Structure prediction request, 291 residues.
Amino acid sequence: MPRYFTEANSEETVNARMGAEIDPRLRQIMAALVRHLHAFAKEVALTEAEWAFGIDFLTKAGQMCSEERQEFILLSDVLGLSMLVDAINHRRPPGATENTVLGPFHVAGAPERAMGESISLDGKGETCLYTGRVLTVGGAPIVGARIDVWSDNAEGFYSVQQPGLQDKWNNRGVFITGPDGHYEFIGIKPVSYPIPDDGPVGKMLTALGRHPRRPAHMHFMITAPGYQRLVTHTFVGDDPWLSTDAVFGVKASLIAPFEPATDGRTRWRSPFDFVLVADTDAPTAHPPDRR
Ligand code: BEZ
Ligand code: FE
Prediction:
């Protein structure tokens, strides 16, 4: 007697259709996805109208996607999935700098600038000296680390959001550490901004009584031969949106000092050391508890 689909056996029936010779990881992922998807529909007793609404939502998200806009990643971000995948894949030992989301506004190929140079090409905003060292977990300086930095402008827009208005490389640059692992550059004290909320994800946030804002932050991507890539931000500690970041990217260890500068060069000063994990270090088995 063939096994026909019923409400009770739905997930097993669907998963039993997979071929015997398929990739084992594909089998594991799809079986779990079907199990959870069916459990979700059963838990909420999904109506046909709700199912159709969901399909329409996903269709609109797809239609919103272009070379410049990735609505599905934005959806993953606001659902906390991006941060969860990031956390699972970047478990680090105590003392190492934590990762956070890359976000959609990184542009590869930013100009390499001399240490101490400014990344603010429009001269707007409150100037800030970013300074510190790139170190190993043992505290040794990392020479030749490549620090790629980017932030929004004083009005809360990244250069790629305003192609005719901002220089492509405004508030962006690459710095290479010297023998002492030291870095410094001048940027602006970043401001908080809303994630792109003119599409289905924005509508979803409104329907859920959520706001689209991210607390002010400076992005860093740090690479050095022999070390795991670090993708992170430093956050401005007094930002009112810190505890409700729309994409859950804030970690306590990434809140940096932003203190008034006293040397007359800049208005603010933000000292922060970054600690990289060697490629050869054993993976951290369990998530460190840093609640
Ligand atoms: C960002 O920090 O640039 C960002 C991250 C996730 C979604 C939107 C923006
Ligand atoms: Fe950002």
Notes: Residues 103, 105, 214, 217, 219 surround fe (iii) ion (ligand 2) (CB under 6 Å). The chain has two domains: 1-46, 81-281. The helical segments are 10-16, 24-44, 48-64, 71-78, 81-89, 200-207.
